[in-house]
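Help!! Second protein's tokens look totally different from the first
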Amino acid sequence: MNPFEFHLPTSIKLGVGSFQKTSQYFLESIKGKKVFIVTDPGIERIGLVNQLDSSLKEDGLSTYTFNKVQPNPRDYDCIQGGFEARDFNADCIIALGGGSVIDAAKAIAVLQVLGGSPQDYAGRNNIPSAVTPLIAIPTTAGTGAEVTRSSVITDTKKKTKLTIKDVKIAPALAIIDPELTYNLPAPLTASTGMDALVHAIEAFTCKLSNPIADGLALQAMKFIYPNLRKTYTDGKNKQAREQLMIGSTIAGMAFSHADVASVHCMAEAIGGLYDTPHGVANSMFLPYVLEFNAQANLTKHATIARTIGVATETQSDVDATINLVEAMKNLANELSIPNFSSLANVNPSDFDYLAQSSFLNGSTPSNAREITKKDYFELFQSAYKGPVSL
């Protein structure tokens, strides 16, 4: 077993109705009176920003709302957010939204204090000093960003994604209220839920896995896999929504203390080039990477299959892994995740570029099996041609 560290600096407040207590939690844990709210236009339209803003002001806090975050958050929006947070002299940043909003807020927290661009802090542990405290309030059950120490931002000039990884950007507080996901549309439920499942799977199988992260990852799978279908088919199933959100947060803790791997590398490559939603991209490539990786650690892949109930204890590891790949393919189909070839603008002539981008991703070395640019190219080809078969 490799040496490892485990450090979770985020305090978690989880429960139905916890969103309504945001102001109380802020006053208990954060110094200062000036709150910079980071969100997106969709969250603002449904009234959540107004609820939060009113509650904070009722308790004597000053607020400023930055609502320019887009899916696959852009570097230039983070830079603008940093300028506006600095001008407001924010004491705290509250991220209200999905993973894109929380990732953008993390970058804004850095840029408010240190200036520059997200590119200046890309990689591991490149933030030289403390940044603005962050409270994360997720509105999807998917990214786990509310408890992670990473921020994934689109480099708009290079059309690639960069990742800032540093414990200094981990939220000080995560307010996790399943009620915020009750009206989440089915397609978004599907894509974000699949993202959470991939987090758990890659945390468990990657080379940086460790016993604590493994335990979290397996527990996350138990919450996510059976409840994802339920929430997709019946968005009003409150118990399933709650279970899925808990699983998403646990998966975030798992991969934050291990890593993701080649599924994410490929997903981030097409996200940077085609602006593909991240959870959709992960879903497209998961069966192909599982098939590729299985020989590196058959036991772990079989363990996943048994954990989520698609294989029995008496089945061989080979048969269990075959079942796992098939189950992931079927799940994506049931959730109406599109095929890679059906995406707008996808062109096989881009595969060499996408393979190079995937290979250069910082999580490539963490993949369970050694993987080359050529391997990535062939995986993109396989995903484009059609369903995986063993």
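Here's the second one for comparison:
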Amino acid sequence: MDTSPQLLKGSLSAIILKLLSDSQWMYGYEICQKVKELTSGQLKITEGALYPALYKLEAEGILITKTQVVEGRARKYYSIAQDQQGNAQDKLAQIGHFLYQLQRILTPDDFIKLPAT
């Protein structure tokens, strides 16, 4: 089943923050390939969708960048700003809580009640 582009677009910030919290520095194409790898090809992020999300997180001060020349071409790497690590973890926790609640609605019989957070 193909994933709706709207669902994917709404999830990009979470995907980016999670990958960068695990890998420190990544460039755009690398992020696209990592998502494809982790989802066995089920989720494919286009560069046209990815870069606006990266630019938005950078404008918000959550991401920092550095540029390196690789094989004669400039490559822009992204990382979570040191002073934003906690903020990024809070955003991921919020998204995780939301997904948990959504899953409870979609499949209520499959859930064991967990203490409220």
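Reply: Different proteins will give different token patterns, so don't panic. The longest helix spans residues 85-106.
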